[in-house]
Amino acid sequence: MNKRKICVVITGRPSYSRIKSVLQAIQEHPELELLLIVGASALLYRFGSVIDMIRADGFEPKSLVYNIVEGETPSTMAKSTGLGVLELATQFENLKPDIVLTVADRFETMATAVAASYMNIPLAHTQGGEFTGSIDDSVRNAITKLAHLHFPATKQAGEIVVRMGEDPKAVFVTGCPSIDLAADARTKASENLFEKYGGTGQSLDWDKPFLVVLQHPVTTEYGEAYKQTEETLEAVQRMNMQVAWFWPNVDAGSDAVSKALRTYIAENGTMPIHFYRNFSPEDFVHLHERASCLVGNSSSGIREGSYLGTPVVNIGTRQLHRERGKNVIDVGYDAQAIYEAITRQVAHGRYPSDNLYGDGKAGKRIADILSTCSLDIVKRSSYATD
Fold first, then answer.
1. What structural domains does the chain harbor?
2. What is the 3-state secondary structure (H, E, C) of 32-82?
């Protein structure tokens, strides 16, 4: 019997951590063949060279897609999406997958969805039905309407996908694959990650308390990223704690965030802060668990943070409406409010683990469904009438 060819497209740091367990499950499944495409920021050094981690984990891409237009502006995001459609259409034509699987809500994900849809390839989508507060909502919902199979992470997200008119028989609440990775990684011993990875800034002591900061630009607030980053820098400086800070993603406004960080480095050479490009997904779990508090606007604080019990201070609108556990405090772009929230979370300490986003078994569930699901590409909205 011929194996079903499942094409997975990985485009950056988050998409790899949120799909790695699915890659493993597909690779191990007797009825599936993994076709891996790696592209966009996952190929770029300044965003952490995710491709090197992918290969180190034993996944060899069938093809690489270079489609990022430099500049990190709304215009370059649109152009990168267009280039992604062009390049992925060629790759899909060459690989001839039975199903394309795409992740979440990135502009690169939109390119994957559009190319697959116009080529009559069944599209599967993880993490649909979630709501945030930025352009990601529009992208995520558009991909949901293009997709034929849905793998939402939570019960509420699954209900939202159905209310959007999707066939309930095509909606499978599997949990988030990133929780699989977290559940596995936390059972293994960690090492001194501050010495393992390079980066720039002051040396940090692995055995002393520290904060982790991930703050990305918000596309719908383009032009405000520099000031927003300054507010967070002021707050963490007042904490007088060690800080492991990660460089931002490729979204519009990324250059402004990076400029604020570089200016800070030049003016505050003695502050115990160290800047990193990327950690492996497993090592980031260990960092997550050891941190006194995770600060910023990354969904990892809300998603993996709920499972790991990490105290989180979520800043601004990027994750505004996403489901969250009790481990999250929400604040605006104000240094005093951020400082007070971090102080409260550090004093609180770890929270109980919450399975809101999954129980660590999503990868196998998704692979099993992919091996047996219908390959019908004709969609019919539940709103449609005869």
1. 4-176+358-372 (3.40.50.2000), 191-348 (3.40.50.2000)
2. EEEEEEEEHHHHCHHHCCHHHHHHHCCCCCCEEECCCCCCCCHHHHHHHHH
